[in-house]
Amino acid sequence: MRAFGRSLSDFGSLFELEKQLLAACQKGDVAQGDVECPEHATSQNKVRAGFIRFLLLGAEDGIAIHENGIQLGKAFIVGALDLRSATVAYAFTLRSCTLTRITAFSGAQFKQTVSLYGSQLKGLKAYGMSVRGDFIAKKIHTTHSVNISAVSVYGNVSFSGAQLKTGSTISLSGTDAVIKGGFFLADGFTADGLVKVVGAEVGGQFNCRAGTFLNEEVALDATSIKAGRGVFLQGGFKSYSEILFIAASVNGQISAKDATLSCKHGVTLTADRLRLNGNIYFDKGFTSEGRVSLCGAVVEGQLNCSGAVFTGSEQALLANNLHLTGVANLGGGFSAKGTVSFNGARFESDLKFTGAVRIGKLLAVRACIKGALNMVDIKNRINKVSLAGTYAAVLNDDAASWGNHLVLNGFVYDFIDVLNTMTVNERVNWLKKQYVRSSKNNEKMKDESPAFVPQPWQQLKTVLESMGRAEDAREIGIEYERHRSKCGQIGLAPQSWNIVSKIINRIVATDLARSIRHFDWLRLSPYFVTALVFGRMVFHHRFLLVCSESRGCIRPQRSSDISESGLYVVPTPC
Fold first, then answer.
1. Where are the domains of the chain?
2. In this predicted model, what pLDDT tens digit does every residue of 228-245 receive, in sequence order?
């Protein structure tokens, strides 16, 4: 005895389009109505969901299904298409159909491709579904959420052009999905709720080109996603809240050319602890109204932000502890209203700001740049820069790119690029722009008085000497002493001294230190003469040679032993 719906006789008289479908599936043809996604059922377009299920499960003896499978278009499907836990051996296509009830594919096993192209749905539940071909949901429209979590698809999954106007918290859930092909949310894809693909494994590309993500809390959550052939957020991609790629693993590029990221909460993209074997492109048309975070990311490739615009007023690009093997290019029209932070970052190649338009603040504390630090042709000089404790193999800069309020203490470099060499005066002015910070927090650099920090002066002098520019190094040394004196670091006297003594000490100490450092013998001669005269006076007036008792001499014991001149008189031996 068969279950109901497994025999043709269970359906009684067939509707006109059902008759066409029965004939078409035996011939490998398409059965379809007259109007795409009909709004109302008629005798010419109506098909019962149970009848479709009957055919998908193999119909009955005497009805042979063609290898092209079941192909139905422009139909109004009555009832719920329920294929939960079913095994379907044939390809299945619903094109531009209207489904009036929720579609249930949870646990179903499809041996071939499934297509819902251009159809209107009341939601899709396909948790744990298995498809040994492609799963195509291009240009579908749905007013309820779509759940494809934990699916296993041997081909591509495509929602390109789909309109998910669900009005719910989650529009599309693909958590822990395993997709051996590509995952496409592109070419006009729109979702008004969260798109959640946490932990998904995608063998091909994760492509959201020209997609629109409207949710105001989190637009796209791709935490821990694995993508085998890159991530594409380009070609007019738009998001209206935060995008998460935390701890994602991507083989291939991440491209966000011509993307627009906005967020009311100030954070547009978070990709902390990202592992990427490829390049990052935030260039040519990329715009972010909030912070982009790459903290702790490991990128075996380049970071290209040329032409990118970051309009957030607080933090623009936060890449602390980033490890980048290729070139970091933040030039060529790059603009950031807020802070660009590379604290603790490690660059195996160059860090370039050549041709940048604007950077609100640059922080690169304890960073390591094994290539060149390029600060050339920046249109609007960077007024706040911290390079404390940073190493760069080569410094390539110009005077016009450096603004005021620099923190250079501990900044070490091996070589200065000879093609863009600043003059000694420009280098001196650069060093004089150093300011102290009132807070230990690197994010808060407060202007105070000009700071005297000897290390940057000594570093520059040492590098110039190693490059054979001894005269320039000597000039830097002279200016170092002048600035040191100006900052009150020469001739410091004890607090107990009176003001006159302090002034005299300062003048003498400053002049003497400068003369000694630069071997100015003419200026040193008065000090030698003074020291000689003073030493002679001490020898004659404060020192007494007294014979020891072994030589028969005794010390004076009476006041009569002292002459009127104040000198000791050696008494006659007893």
1. 1-101, 109-252, 262-489
2. 999 999 999 999 999 999
